[in-house]
Specification:
The complex is a heterodimer of chains A (378) and B (449). Chain A contains 8 helices and 19 strands. Chain A has 378 residues and is α/β, with parallel strands linked by helices. Chain A has an 8-stranded mixed sheet with strand order 8-9-11-10-12-13-16-17, sandwiched between helices. In chain A, helix 6 links the parallel strand 16 (271-276) and strand 17. The radius of gyration of chain A is 23 Å and the shape is globular. By secondary structure, chain B is an alpha/beta fold. In chain B, the strands form 4 sheets. Chain B has an 8-stranded mixed sheet with strand order 10-11-13-12-14-15-18-19, with helices on both faces. A 6-stranded mixed sheet of chain B has the order 2-9-8-4-5-7. In chain B, strands 16-17-21-20 form a 4-stranded mixed sheet. The longest helix of chain B is centred in the last third of the chain and has 25 residues, at 417-441. The termini of chain B are far apart. The relative contact order of chain B is 0.10. The chains are: A alpha/beta (378), B alpha/beta (449). The interface between A and B is large, with 48 and 51 residues. Chain B: Belongs to the C/M/P thioester hydrolase family.
């Protein structure tokens, strides 16, 4: 039959933001026909990624693409469609920042503004990742993807000032509402968020989001120096049956000593902590427990919201990003390559990404867009 | 009195909005932000004060450098939300619950040149529309918008290939869907006076058809026979394409293009379209020996020289004069000879061509030839001549340049904006369903099994 006429495959919408859903529909199949639907993406690194699902068409001949289930890749597809997934909505402006010693990329939503804003920081070992900021700008926030691991800072004070300066660059931007700037950090970036918010006398984030919470920061150390200290414990790392390296257990010992940690009890703004219960890289759930305890002691527990996802790992990203249980990682100082275990299992981790993103956006909208202060004024 | 109370509340609300937006703007979103031109979007405004009058406006800067706009007046609900898909517009360029009113009710901004028509000539780039929200209703333009976003409207889905055709003397643009194929094919033809419009062919390819937008008015063919061969050759170029299913090629024509469709279907001995779609059907095919091009020139010159009716706005109406032409049976194509499923779509308020009478005539002739079962008809009340894909703005009358003399007139196409726009939306859905049925599904397929 398929030599006569192909099935009709459609992806709606064919162009979407990466956190939006699409509907994949196939029509014009024979009824009750086993087929396989497959996605294929060639990455910027020139690797091919795929996913696929086996389906059976209904009595109207509706579902999916390749004929048959086993060995579907051996045959040419019956039909294929191309879908575009965008990080930037139309009209979002991308601006390279190199100002007052601070480097990074700024994304500005379309429209006159002014807008609330975010300082956005990823974790270690990744280089400058812009995609979350681009997406946040597409959702209405001026968002600054900060490059903070490239250079070596002379001292912890100088490094601290780097972060304060970065925050103020956003705060002073003509299209930013100065008292509505928050911080979003993941992994090492969440430590920076805790650190800034707990100790800065000059910047006051309106709220912070910490994904894969980390509050380990030996006092008076730069990030690089802190990492050197961490690496001295690598010999205690646990290696699983695949020889993947997990830092979780030795890190748990490290954070047991409170003198190594940021005094999060000093924080005075709303906080959202998002963690995966199967995080094998860092004891993020235990960190969140500790944060809760310290805030409770200070009578500030009302500031805290926590999300802990069963079966999710360390790399909690925007929705529909593939899950990586373990990936190659270059140890900064030694240039040694290991495979780091992040944890998580694909289905629960993906559910966590979808749910947490929605809740993060809703948290940000509540604290950065809605106006309890205006009602107070009236 | 009640009115005063409402006014006062509106004033307070706008003051509150002004105070608020100095602190934080409303949140405006268009979902999806990138879409095909025939897809719907949802425009949502949040974070307004409750019960607040605002205006949502669209703005498009055309390729011809004119500005087109539409707008609706809304009032936010108790949670501070305006949803264009769900809420009533109280006035503007459209009223009522109209999710897509910001597109189809667009018209040139005040102060623009008269007689403008919106057509996208470059289909490789999207149509960019800025959607913005403004405080208040009357005089909303006096202040800067509170928020604005940009949305892209595409004719081409990702992966569509666009190929210039200049082959065997035939010129046009071919659009091929992504994927291995093979696909059904369509020969797509616009009416007179447009130049080569690719927008519909690109959109049809986005729906899975290899489509050729044919350029057929640019040249003076030497004779009617040669011109007929031009169309047959064009059809065969599609039919013979390696990614086209040769027995699943249809013809899609609007206005003069529909004349080509019916004559090919009726008279060609070598091309056999699987089905034809005729929008604003024209079957005027007088004495042999004149080409479509010259017929067209002839009709237009004749109509103007016979002082076609000109209304009080100086808009030229061809319909009545044309009606006289087509009452002579020797002037019309023998549509009873058509042997394939035929869909006729026309507007009952067509002022350019007597398409209603034409459709009646086609039905009569096909009935007499025992072919009535092949015919489907859609006739839309208060709809004009230029029935285009959904959400395209409606033009009741536009400037038309005579090809030979370069004389400019304003032609009346007819239709009222709201019913015409409804007709575009409804007819497109039905056209796609007709094409899918005959070119993708098709009874002959079941016969093979």
């Amino acid at each position: 039959m398929t030599q006569a006429v192909p099935p009709i495959l459609s992806v709606t919408p064919s162009r979407a933001l990466v956190d939006e859903k699409f509907q994949v529909l196939v029509e014009n199949l024979p009824p009750g026909c086993p087929v396989t639907l497959r996605s294929l993406h060639r990455s910027e690194d020139e690797d091919d990624w795929e996913a696929y699902g086996h389906y059976v068409s209904d009595h109207r001949g509706v579902v999916s693409v390749h004929s048959g289930h086993e060995g579907f890749r051996d045959r040419t597809p019956l039909a294929s469609a191309l879908a575009e997934r965008w990080y930037m909505a139309p009209g979002v402006k991308r601006i390279d920042i190199n100002k007052q010693g601070v480097q990074g990329t700024l994304f500005i939503p379309p429209g006159p503004g002014p807008f609330p804003a975010l300082l956005d920081m990823w974790g270690g070992g990744a280089g400058l990742l812009e995609y979350r900021s681009a997406l946040l700008a597409s959702r209405g926030y001026v968002s600054f993807s900060l490059d903070y691991l490239r250079s070596e800072h002379l001292s912890a004070d100088v490094e601290f000032k780097y972060f304060e300066t970065a925050f103020n660059i956003i705060r002073n931007h003509p299209q930013v509402i100065p008292d509505r700037v928050g911080i979003l950090g993941s992994s090492l970036g969440s430590m920076v968020a805790f650190n800034l918010t707990a100790y800065s006398t000059i910047i006051k984030p309106r709220c912070i989001v910490c994904i894969s919470s980390n509050h380990y920061h030996p006092p008076g150390t730069t990030l690089k120096a802190g990492f050197k200290i961490l690496s001295k414990h690598f010999h205690k790392a646990h290696f699983d049956e695949n020889n993947y390296m997990s830092w979780r257990s030795f890190a748990l010992d490290l954070i047991a000593d409170p003198s190594n940690n940021v005094e999060v009890g000093r924080i005075n703004c709303p906080m959202l902590l998002v963690n995966g219960c199967d995080d094998q890289n860092w004891p993020t759930v235990e960190t969140a427990e500790e944060v809760a305890r310290l805030l409770r002691e200070g009578g500030k527990e009302h500031l805290l919201s926590r999300l802990a996802y069963p079966g999710a790992g360390h790399l909690i990203e925007p929705p529909f990003s593939p899950h990586f249980r373990a990936t190659k990682f270059i140890i900064l100082n030694s240039k040694e390559k290991v495979i780091l275990l992040w944890g998580g299992h694909t289905k629960p981790h993906s559910d966590a990404q979808e749910d947490s993103w929605r809740k993060i956006l809703s948290f940000l909208q509540l604290h950065l867009y809605h106006s309890p202060s205006v009602k107070a004024n009236l | 009195p009640k009115q005063w109370a409402v006014l006062k509340r509106d004033e307070e609300c706008m003051k509150l909005l002004s105070a608020m937006t100095q602190v934080v703007p409303p949140i405006l979103s268009v979902t999806p932000c990138r879409a095909l031109v025939d897809e719907k979007f949802k425009v949502l405004v949040e974070n307004l004060p409750p019960g607040c009058p605002v205006t949502v406006r669209s703005l498009h800067h055309s390729e011809d450098k004119d500005d087109w706009e539409a707008y609706g007046h809304y009032v936010s609900d108790h949670s501070g939300v305006v949803s264009v898909s769900e809420d009533l517009s109280y006035g503007g360029t459209y009223t009522g619950k109209e999710p897509m009113g910001l597109l189809w009710s667009m018209r040139p901004v005040p102060g623009s040149r008269p007689g403008l028509r919106l057509r996208k000539m470059n289909v490789c780039t999207p149509m960019l529309v800025t959607i913005s929200v403004h405080s208040g209703h009357e005089g909303f333009r006096d202040q800067a918008p509170l928020a604005s976003v940009l949305t892209e409207r595409w004719y081409m889905a990702p992966g569509i290939r666009r190929i210039n055709i200049n082959e065997q003397g035939v010129q046009g643009t071919l659009f091929i869907p992504p994927g291995p194929g093979p696909f059904p094919g369509l020969l797509d033809m616009w009416g007179g006076g447009g130049g080569l419009l690719e927008s519909r062919a690109a959109l049809l390819a986005s729906h899975g058809y290899v489509s050729l937008a044919l350029d057929y008015l640019g040249f003076d063919q030497e004779s009617e026979n040669l011109e007929f061969k031009y169309f047959e050759t064009a059809f065969n170029i599609i039919k013979d394409h390696p990614q086209v299913m040769p027995d699943r090629v249809g013809i899609f024509g609007l206005s003069l293009g529909s004349l080509v469709a019916v004559t090919l279907a009726a008279y060609s001995t070598i091309v056999k379209p699987c089905c034809i779609v005729c929008i604003s059907c024209n079957h005027y095919y007088p004495a042999r020996g004149s080409t479509v091009t010259s017929k067209f020139e002839g009709v237009t010159r004749w109509v103007l020289s016979l002082s076609a009716r000109v209304n009080e706005d100086n808009q030229v109406i061809w319909k009545d004069v044309a009606l006289e032409f087509i009452t002579d049976p020797s002037n019309i194509a023998e549509v009873g000879r058509i042997n394939c499923p035929t869909l006729l779509v026309n507007g009952c308020d067509d002022q350019n061509w007597p398409t209603v009478e034409t459709a009646e005539d086609v039905a009569r002739l096909m009935r007499e030839a025992g072919k009535e079962h092949l015919l489907s008809r859609l006739a839309y009340p208060d709809t004009g001549h230029l029935i285009e894909p959904p959400f395209s703005p409606h033009f009741r009358a536009t400037t038309f340049v005579m090809r030979s003399s370069k004389e400019k007139v304003i032609l009346l196409w007819g239709g009222q904006t709201k019913p015409h726009s409804d007709a575009q939306e409804d007819s497109w859905r039905k056209i796609l369903s007709f094409l899918q049925f005959h070119l993708y599904c098709g009874p002959n397929l079941k016969a093979k099994i």
